[in-house]
Design brief:
With 541 residues, the protein is mostly helical. The protein has three domains: 185 residues, Growth Hormone, Chain: A (Up-down Bundle), CATH 1.20.1250.20; 60 residues; 238 residues, Growth Hormone, Chain: A (Up-down Bundle). Helices cover 78% and strands 0% of the residues. It is built from 22 helices and no strands. Helix 5 packs across helix 19. The protein starts with a helix and ends in a 30-residue tail after the last helix. GO terms for molecular function: transmembrane transporter activity. Keywords: Antibiotic resistance, Membrane, Transmembrane, Transmembrane helix. Its main location: membrane.
């Protein structure tokens, strides 16, 4: 080889190294943006008491402070995916980050409950754009061989918001004005704008350009309406119980709309020259279909921990919000331990076995958690939480990477939105079901003295209501009964969660493809790389 050829080869190698570094820096920016979205969801729980006083909010207002964000987050998933596919993922991601910064400032300076709810709604739309575009960007930034590791890092960053929100929010509310709880998102989002603008390539493939003139308004309406109704129904079921008629009506109506959406998209896709919002052919790929299903199962199973344990730490063990956040660190550490090396585990064992091992660990941890008592040691609780977290990290990172391996680059926005929609709906669904199990167990075990009708209703509403009444009437036996009854209900919920994890194990072993993480589908546009490790190419759009 001549000097010129050697220099050219060296330059190519250095360029590949530089491109690799740019990808990982871009991933850091995407993870930072996802952390901002996650923080906004978790920090509100500790800010609600202060907001109630300063904004003179009613109980209904407080409900909508949280629900408005979740509803608009769900509603905007598929439309944001469509916008990304048609206008450019990078363009929509930068716009979403900018909107997130503006709406966070709008929350901080809200003067009335209506203003705050409106700002939270816009924040949900911006959050949907961020989470969908960030996930779809992974299909462009990383070849198939590196994508599982990238998904592991991305997943670990997402989960950091769980303890960080209460910790950061609790400190701010103790020492600063409550508006800083939301203003903290502004610099994070703006840094994300700068880094994404510099490091993330444009990624609208040329194949999409010809399809931009044929929107699917019916598909957008049906999918949005269905996700909103299902989410609203599940939120209401979590607040008012499984017997609430409006919860059933909203959830059932949403499922009907989603079924109509699937039927309509199938019919539209069979017409020559028409382009549906969601190409249902993607579900012919087992890695995508069962990857999506297993993501939903994993979220459902582990939401029992995130739903019950903060209540356990605060109402039973007597910690505050910051202390509760600190005690959630074992599950976050487990998630990181399981998610980050998921790619190496999948290469060593195969995708099917890797996902199955994740669900085995998750089931073991959750079933151990079902033996938690009022006096359980901190080490025991940390052990089973860390074990379930490691299983969730491994199962979710591997399932997500397997599903992304079947995503076509030209449709990656919408197809990534489906993954995120299942993820986001799975949380309120799990909270509604497991919350109902926990509350039923609590009420069955609760023993109280003679109380007025109002006090009895408050005591039966949950552990915090029971603790309040016990303190007011000065009954030590009732206080002990409240704590014991809650732990009984919590254990039942964790056992159900463990059973769901066992279901995930069975589904993974029966249906998940056994070799590799799927393949990039050149016939449907590919995902910017191949299993052989070829470099992804961003296409300006």
């Amino acid at each position: 080889m001549g000097a010129t050829g050697m220099a050219g080869a060296a330059g190519t190698a250095m360029g590949a190294v530089g491109a690799g570094r740019r990808r990982w820096w871009a991933l850091a920016a995407l993870s930072l943006a996802m952390l901002a979205v996650g923080l906004d969801g978790t920090v509100l729980s500790v800010a609600l008491p202060r907001l109630a006083g300063d904004l003179e909010a009613t109980a209904s207002d407080l409900q909508w402070f949280s629900s408005s964000y979740l509803l608009f987050l769900a509603a905007a998933m598929l439309p944001m995916g469509l916008l990304g596919d048609r206008l450019g993922h990078k363009r929509v991601l930068v716009a979403s980050l900018s909107l997130f910064a503006l709406s966070s400032a709008g929350c901080a300076y809200a003067a009335t409950p209506g203003w705050f709810i409106a700002a939270r709604s816009v924040l949900g739309v911006a959050g949907a754009g961020i989470v969908v575009m960030a996930l779809s960007a992974l299909t462009v930034l990383f070849p198939a061989a590196e994508r599982p590791r990238a998904v592991g890092v991305w997943s670990a960053a997402n989960f950091l918001a769980l303890p960080l929100g209460p910790l950061l929010g609790g400190w701010m509310l103790t020492h600063l004005w409550w508006g800083w709880v939301f203003l903290i998102n502004v610099p994070v989002a703006l840094v994300g704008v700068v880094v994404v603008s510099v490091l993330v390539p444009k990624a609208v493939p040329e194949a999409v350009v010809g399809r931009r003139s044929r929107p699917d308004p019916v598909g957008v309406s049906l999918s949005t309406g269905g996700l909103v109704c299902v989410t609203l129904g599940l939120i209401r079921a979590g607040e008012y119980g499984r017997h609430d008629a409006w919860a059933w009506a909203a959830t059932g109506g949403g499922l009907v709309l989603l079924a109509a959406f699937g039927r309509y998209e199938h019919r539209l896709g069979s017409r020559p020259g028409r382009q549906p919002l969601l190409d249902l052919r993607v579900f012919a790929a087992a890695s995508y279909t069962w990857g999506v299903v297993l993501i939903g199962i994993a979220v459902f199973a582990n939401i029992g921990v995130l739903f019950t344990m903060p209540q356990y730490f605060q109402a039973v063990r007597g910690t505050d919000a910051m202390g509760s956040g600190l005690r959630l660190l074992p599950i976050i550490g487990g998630l990181v331990i399981g998610a980050v090396p998921a790619d190496r585990v999948a290469r060593l064992l195969g995708v099917k076995v890797a996902v199955a091992v994740g669900f085995v660990l998750m089931a073991a941890g959750l079933l151990m958690g079902g033996a938690t008592s009022v006096g359980s040691s901190a080490w025991f609780v940390a052990l089973w939480m860390g074990l379930s977290g490691a299983g969730m990290g491994l199962a979710m990172a591997t399932s997500t990477a397997a599903a992304l391996s079947e995503v076509s680059q030209g449709r990656s926005g919408v197809e990534a939105a489906v993954l995120q929609a299942v993820n986001k709906v799975g949380a309120p669904f799990g909270s509604a079901i497991l919350g109902s199990v926990s509350l039923t167990g609590y009420r069955d075990r609760l023993r109280v003295p003679d109380l007025s009708a109002a006090d009895l209703s408050t005591a039966r509403s949950g552990v915090f209501g029971g603790a309040e009444v016990a303190g007011r009437v000065g009954s030590a036996p009732m206080s002990a009964s409240v704590r014991g009854a809650f732990v009984h209900g919590m254990d039942l919920a964790l056992l159900v969660s463990g059973g769901v994890a066992v279901l995930g194990l069975i589904v993974a072993l029966v249906f998940m493809p056994g070799v590799g993480a799927g393949r990039d589908r050149a016939g449907r546009g590919g995902v910017g790389g191949s299993a052989s490790g070829s470099q992804p190419v961003g296409v300006d759009g």
